[in-house]
Every structure is written in C-alpha cells, then in structure tokens.
Amino acid sequence: MYIISGKGTVAGVDLATYMLKKCQQRGVLWDNDLPEYTLDFLTQTPSVSKSIRQGKVAEVVSIFNRKLKEAESNHGHYMLLCLTAHQLIPKLNTKLKCINLWDSVAKRIEGNEDRIAFIGTLECLPKDTNRFVTLSSHSEKMGDLITSVKRGYAGLGENYAAHPKRLLKRVFDDYQALGIKKFFLACTDLHLCKQYLHEFGVHEEDIIDILEIAGDAVLARNHQKYEADFLDEVSDARAHFRYKYVDHSDSLHTDTKTDYYLRLLESLCQPASDTVNILDIGGSSTGHSIALAKKFAPCKCHVTLQDISQSSLDAARHLYANLSDISFTFECGDIATFDDGKKYDAVLCLGVLLHVSSDQAFDRVVRKISDLTKSGGIVITRDCLAESERKIYMSFGGVIRNEALYISTFESAGLKLMEQNSFIIEQPIRRKIKSIVWGKR
C-alpha cells in the first residue's frame, strides 16, 4: 500500500510505530511478518487545510497525482493519511484503489446515536454530517493544539503553558460542559492526545482515533498469515525464548501452584515395586520430583530431569546434590524427541504442555508421555484450562486450552483421570490452573 502522509510528519511516525506495536502484540517472528507499505511524508507539500481555505488546491492535487502515478507500478492501493486531504480524492487521477478512512469511521459509529466531540480541523469535517460537535473558536483551539503537538511542546514538561495536555484539557472541559462523552481524534497528528484523554477519565470505547483506524486498515490488507498455524508458531517462539534463559520459575503464583500439587500427592498410593523411576518433564528447577520421591519412600527412587533449558538444569543441580537416598539424571532437550529407552512409573509434567501451542503437536506430546509411562503407572499434569471453545493465546507464550478437549486428548492416549484439583487466576486472563493425576491403562 502507498500512504501519503502529506505534511503530517508526526502522524507518519506515529502510524509506523502503532503498526509495529500492534504486530508485535499479535506476533512477529521475522521482518516479513510485518505489513509491506510505502509511507511518503511529502513534507514540502503545501498545507492541505490552508490550500482548501484559500481555494488553491491545484498544486496539492498535482503533487499527489504525480506521486500516485509513480506508485502504480508497485502498489494496488493508496491511502491519504490526512482526513482533510480526503476532500481531494475526487480530483485524483490514479489506477490505485483508494482506502477511504471516512468509510471506516462510518462503520465505527454506525448504530450509535451519541454526539461525538470533533477534535480536528473544520476543513476535514464532512458537510453532510451532524454527528460531530464543534466548539466556538474551534479553528483557533484546534490549530493551537495541533501546533503544540507538531512542534514537540509535549517534551517541555506539563508546566509549560502551551503543553498539548493543557490545551486539550481546555477543549475537553468545553465538551464536558456540553455533555459530550465520546471523542473523535480526527487529525492523525493528535494520536498523542489519546493517552491524555485516558488520563482525563475517558474510556477506551469512547475514543475514536483516526490514526489507529488508518493503521488497522493497513494491517487488514496485509496478507500476513494471522491464523492458527502462525499464532501457534509465535506462541511457541515466545515460550522457547523465555525458557532459553530462565533458571527458575518466574510465575507470580508459584507458591499456590506448589501447594495444590502437594495436596494432590496426598491422594497417591504407595507403588508395589521397591524401585521407582520418575521422569520430571520441564520441572528441574522446582524440586517437585523430590517431593514425589519422598512420598514414595522408602522405595528407592531414580529421577530423570528432562528440560529444554540447560540454564534451568544447571541451576537445579544444587537442589539434588545432597540427596543420598534419591539418584538423578539430567537430560537437556525437547520432550517431543526424548527417548532414553525407559518406561517410567511416574511422569511429572507440570506447567509444560501449555507451551505446546499446536493442537497436533499437543496430541503427539501427550501420546509420547503415555508411551513413556508403564502400564499401571501415573502421569501428573498441571495446565491452564478454560471452558471457552477457542484456544486462548497468552502474551508471554503458551495457550489456555478447552478443558473438555484437553481431557479427551489424554483419554485417547490411554490415560484415565484419577484425581484432580484446581484454582482460578483472574488476571490478566481468567483461567483455571488444574492439576490432574492420570492412570496408565
């Protein structure tokens, strides 16, 4: 897409920054996961607002037409980042398809009859709408606000009399006096003002930001593969990068999770054999396998600690150094390819499977765990579950799975649910932390 920023240098930078952050939130692995677009600042173009006021738009139209002609060989769509410049669209002669931001605005306000504060120049306000409310001395107030932002007066400190936050507060108070609660940031240079509106107590749903509408329009036409396979890849990459360096649990709920795990151990019966082989998948730094081995005392226990993070294994060695009654083996690698030729009496897999994002990979790993477990042995898992039918991706990597599908996957792998307990974490995403003891048929 070819984007003309016009004289909106601030808007162009804010647009690029907004889209980058939005992509990073959704998931970025490589540069080609970002949208492809050309952003042309055209800083020497005459002021569109001033040209419209003076009836001298011919020069601006000529510049736009020349740049659009040059863009036709590499692009299929174009966007005028300035809403005021949208008045010039009928005068433009190009083969490129126009992304009209007013169409997106219309969809955003459709079905809502509330009056909306118009924070932008009068030149960009459509003549055929009465949805937007302007103020007395509107042009002067908006002109000063835009000037304050574009000149960087926000960097002079809020005590500066012409700080954009101070100027916006006066505008905000005027609209509050009129009973207006919704705000339209109609000038793309005023993206900075959104955070000020939040500070004034305006809710996110009551702010329409034209720059974000423009950014979302660009992203919507990006042929990025934001579907399940890509999101699974992003989630796994975040989790793997995190665990490449982690040497201990960084969960805020570690103590609660441990407490519920220890409660679950109380339900376990003593094994029939005098020797017990335990596999601890991804839990080397927690010491949970030590608690399980002590539960099985006086049986002689050997624990294999298998973890994808060498740092976690190295940091865990001191936990097991002085335990003469329990022997240990440390194995670094991916559980999906792990094979030491053994069958285990007990397998621990606590907080690991949530980082296997792909449903197909999850199914394969569960079957691998089942294969590593002796008939009559047990598997203990702990994962994030929910009743939601869809898979929920967590920001730090990992997924929250549907509880019913989670259980059916284990049952299909030959494991039977024997005991369980759970607690709820409310923030940032409500999820059930469920620990389960499975029996191998």
UniProtKB/TrEMBL annotation:
**Which keywords belong to this entry?**
Methyltransferase, Transferase
> What Pfam family is a match, any one?
Methyltransf_25
The protein's matches in SUPFAM superfamilies, at most eight in alphabetical order, are given as: S-adenosyl-L-methionine-dependent methyltransferases (SSF53335)
Is Transferase found in the keyword set?
yes
The Gene Ontology biological process annotation of the record reads: methylation
| Methyltransferase domain span | 278-377
Q: Which domain of life is it from?
A: Bacteria
Instruction: Please tell me whether the keyword Protease is annotated for this protein.
Output: no
Cross-referenced InterPro entries, in alphabetical order?
Asp/Glu_race, Methyltransf_25, SAM-dependent_MTases_sf
Name the Gene Ontology molecular function terms of this record. Answer: methyltransferase activity; racemase and epimerase activity, acting on amino acids and derivatives
Name the chain's protein: Class I SAM-dependent methyltransferase
Which organism was this protein described from?
Pseudothauera nasutitermitis
